């Protein structure tokens, strides 16, 4: 994903993201993120016998990842702070014939959100970067608390700016390597198992049409069953 970001970088995240969405009839491509697809495709799918059928997508935007996951059979809930993004995701879900039980989108501020229960078999987080990195870590921790035993959190994140972007601007200025994020998460290894903490490369096209390769940071953490 090349990244439009909210026009201001501190405070007022809801208003900033909402106006960023309102500036454009469609902000993202509508395609699921390639890194997420590649990671999730190699993981087990929903497992009704084990009670792992629900998936949570944090910062779901216009819903492309969540709807791809719903197509795999997950019952997906997408949470995002921008009402316009949530409305677009709901509309696309309806248009593709998904029921609200299969794909549900809700407005939520993840900086204050707490999962009601540890019931999700999969929690996904794609390119959710916050003005303060500590906020992102706190959201990842809440995502981990939402996992059912045996469930996985998959995070796909920027780790560096593409050649055409200002590395001192948001979100690049607050990105971290997955290994650093793991340190900040300070997981208890009795309860958690890290299945992946590394980089995956993808090809992107810059604003002038030039191609470049870009690394994404990938974390896959499993709650021990
Ligand atoms: C870079 S976009 C990624 C969207 C989507 N995951 C994707 O990859 O297409 C980041 C998303 O996070 C949402 N977001 C930012 N801060 C948030 C917060 N505090 N709570 C919930 N969502 C937030 C934004 O509205 C935006 O949709």
Shape descriptor reads globular
Number of helices, counting only DSSP H or I runs of 4 residues or more: 6
- Helix percent reads 25-40%
Q: Which series of helices and strands comes N to C?
A: HHEHEHEEHEHEE
Going by CATH, the architecture would be 3-Layer(aba) Sandwich
Overall CATH class: Alpha Beta
Percent range for β-strand residues: 25-35%
Spatial strand order of the main sheet: 3-2-1-4-5-7-6
Bound molecules: S-adenosylmethionine
The CATH homology group name: Vaccinia Virus protein VP39
Structural class: alpha/beta
Q: How many strand segments? A: 7
Average pLDDT reading:
93
Which residue ranges are poorly predicted, with pLDDT under 50 across at least 5 consecutive positions? 7-11
CATH topology: Rossmann fold
Provide tags for this entry.
alpha/beta, 225 residues
If you had to describe this structure to a student in words, what would you say it looks like?
With 225 residues, the protein is α/β, with parallel strands linked by helices. It has a single domain (12-223), classed as 3-Layer(aba) Sandwich (Rossmann fold), CATH 3.40.50. It has 6 helices and 7 strands. The chain has helices at residues 13-22, 34-41, 64-71, 83-95, 133-145, 178-185; strands at 54-58, 75-80, 103-107, 120-126, 147-158, 192-205, 211-223. It has a 7-stranded mixed sheet with strand order 3-2-1-4-5-7-6. Strand 1, helix 3 (64-71) and strand 2 form a beta-alpha-beta unit. It is globular, with a radius of gyration of 17 Å. The protein starts with 12 loop residues before the first helix and ends with a strand.
């Amino acid at each position: 994903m090349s990244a439009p970001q909210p026009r201001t970088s501190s405070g007022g995240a809801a208003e900033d993201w909402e106006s960023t969405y309102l500036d454009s009839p469609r902000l993202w491509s509508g395609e699921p993120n390639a890194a997420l697809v590649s990671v999730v495709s190699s993981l087990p799918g929903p497992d009704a016998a084990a009670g792992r059928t629900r998936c949570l997508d944090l910062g779901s935007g216009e819903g492309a990842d969540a709807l791809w996951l719903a197509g795999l059979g997950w019952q997906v809930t997408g949470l995002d702070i921008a009402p316009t993004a949530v409305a677009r995701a709901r509309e696309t879900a309806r248009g593709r014939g998904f029921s609200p039980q299969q794909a549900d989108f809700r407005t939520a501020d993840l900086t204050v959100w707490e999962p009601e229960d540890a019931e999700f078999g999969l929690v996904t987080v794609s390119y959710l970067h916050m003005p303060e990195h500590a906020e992102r870590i706190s959201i990842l921790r809440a995502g981990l608390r939402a996992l059912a035993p045996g469930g996985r959190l998959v995070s796909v994140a920027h780790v560096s700016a593409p050649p055409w972007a200002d590395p001192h601007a948001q979100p690049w200025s607050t990105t971290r390597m997955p290994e650093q994020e793991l340190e900040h998460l300070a997981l208890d290894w009795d309860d958690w198992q890290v299945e992946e903490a590394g980089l995956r490369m993808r090809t992107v096209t810059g604003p002038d049409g030039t191609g470049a390769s870009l690394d994404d940071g990938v974390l896959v953490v499993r709650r021990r069953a």
